[in-house]
Fold these 2 entries.
Entry 1:
Amino acid sequence: MDFKRILKPQYYLLAILFLLVLGFRLFMVFQTPNFNYDAYFTLRQVENIKQTGLPLYEDPLSYGGKSQLFAPLNYYILAVFSFIFPLDMVGKILPNIFASLIVVLAYFFTLKSVKDPKVSLIIAFMAGFVPILFFDINNITVNYLAILLIFAIIYCMTRINEKKYTDYSLILMFLLVLTTPLAFLLIIGFLFYLIYLKLENQEIEIKEIEIILFFVFLTFWINLLIYKKAFATHGLLIIWQNAPLKFLSNLFSQLTFIEAFYTISIIPLILGVYSIYHAFQNQQNKSVMLLTGFLTGTFILVWFKLLDLVTGLVFLSVTLVILSAFSMKGFVSFIEKTRISKYENLIIGVLLVLFVVSAIIPSYLMIKNRIHQVPSSQDINVFIAASQITPKNAMIAATVEEGNLLAYYANRKNIADINFLLTPNINQRVGDIDTIYKTRFETEGVGIMNNYGAKYLAVTSYAQAKYGITEPFYVSDTACFTLLYRSNQSKIYELKCKKR
């Protein structure tokens, strides 16, 4: 073992930086005991794996009973750790460890590219505090693991002529395909990379072609096995996960233009774009071309609304940060050749202060804004109570966003949740739920609930805020509705009458 290499001072600094980012993320995420609404589907899958060894592909609660389609690796990783630690703790900590490891990956990626430990540490620091990486901090999202795998594959592709990195790239590709359909994003990035090589008259190595073709075949084959039924049912609509129109519009309007701009951060944006310009004009660096190909593919998918805005911004941001290393290296080299070289550390310090102002402060503000966008305790209490006061086969009407929360805590069927695949007439179903809460006509609300077989109605603080109501107008009819349970302002009602 090469102890001299392990004991290099920059590795200590890298370890401290990793712990700093992880500590910051964990401090913020533990400000609330709950997860956001999307996370409860993941928790159900992990618990089912622990009990049966298999994910919940046939879900008896979602939409009253339906098939679920997804790549399973992320759920198995969470399940393994949940045998050692409590699941709530695993859900809080493990995704944030994955997010913090982006710091380590960015360091070694840039160190290989620019051969400068100081620049690599600066880029690692930037990668750890890109604002958009804090957007979904309270979700057990697969995106953090996907980022690690995708950029690890890109790193291995830059060292493809080294035998062990060829093997690593193949293993990582297999893991990526079993983790997320975002593997298709990397395929498009590789396509633009090959186009750029051709346009710049750069040599395309046979090994690169072979590995890319293998990855294309593997991705299409595995995803066809997983999503075959969805392809047959939805056709091209599978790209948007069969999401209803109102949810699709929300996916691309989660951030305003100004918010999207500052979530990337101005420093990486300027330095990253300049790196691309300089590389194509002068150096024709293949590492830059590979990253630029991925950047181009991601940008086009976001532009044409084939990839949701937040996921797209996450990948754009990390790519720009890594590309910034090439500009940063040129900037540092320029300073060292001038009379102001003795002020090098001061100048870099000023640059880092600008990054703190333009990135870390927005990161903190974004977390403060989103950290409490989680189910309230009173809403959770309502669903826990529903598990005790309703029949086991009961259907409960709740908002779409609360569908997975209902299934997790109440263990009861929902009318709809955010897993839209394989659901016919999804726009009508989502519209019917809106009508249940907004209509002033008892016959309409009761009729919809009867059509779906829902005998109970959850009126949570979330539903009240979403629809601007205290409760549906018609539940005051005591001949038709009985208040079963109340936790502060959140309530659950039993429907006793049929359509009249």
Entry 2:
Amino acid sequence: MSQEPIRVLHVVGGMGLGGIQSYLMNLYRVMDRTKIQFDFLVHIKSENSFENEIHSLGGKVYYIENDYFEKKQMKKYSRFIDDFLKKHHEYKIIHGHLRSTAFIYLKYAKKHNKITIFHSHSTSNGYKFTAYITNLTQIPIRYMSDYFMGCSQAANEWLFGKKIAKSNHCYIVYNGIEVEKFTYNEQKKRAIRRELKLDNHTLILMTVGRLVEQKNQMFLIKMMEELTKKNKNVKLLLVGDGPLKELLQKTSKMLHLDEYIIFLGARVDVYNLLQAADIFLLPSKSEGLGIVAIEAQASGLPTIVSPAVPKEAHITNLCVTCSNSIEDWIKEIEKVKHISRKNMEKEITQANYNIHSISKWLADFYIQVYNKKDME
């Protein structure tokens, strides 16, 4: 009789098209699901969700009842979490990714004798008053987690503190990618450009990210205002969706950049769009890692990033850090625009960003801590 897989419950904000969600799905797709299964406790419903794919892979998706989380009904939310974890004996491992209520769900996970893991994906909560509140509420994570993970050393130190980040219970788990999906292909580049109605002689810049202040797309719009004064044969592909979409579009129109900036919305085929680009740009104000910078390098693209992007994202000589000056970014674009693209599979794999090896490590880790708990 075959042994049932260990079911790991991932606690997330949403399961729409986002960086954390894409990372988890990348892991899940290549995970040995005879040994490990992923299920998800989701706080916010999303239109573009991975839910159907999760079900097809054998996973389950649960939602917080009656929108307690979104309505900020914390007493009812706490009761729901308590009842849920009491009812679901099949989960011995709770892997948290949502910071704002971790102090609640980790507390009840410990109450019900679960193994708790928390995963840091960022280095900032933003700059508003709500960020200050989240900074306070996330402190208990340090005392309620059995194990700690993060996408970079900076992400671990920011959330857990330097002492924990250096401990043997804290791990850097690289945000791996399916390298073969991103490998540069000239024919594919031409095909995607035809699909987007872009000619082969236009300089195509690209950025990917949720349209929020942290990702700093406004910087790129202002940069395009200056760049197009010197070079009319250039376009910016802006991939992503979010609350700043309307403002960014209005600003683009006001600056008469409509023909130079293309808003593509949230896409599941970023690996294809990267083929069409010439240079990738990531001007973020804060980043836990910046997985899209890894994906861009895997596609053979010169990749220009802000000083906020951690050193772990610099895995090839294609990635360069640029100051926060528009003039410097334009100079760097001119400097790298003639770089020839090549197959980067070997470099990405050597840098430990191959999703297959990361998935195997994580599966082995889950099995190890699960068996250790059983022996106690």
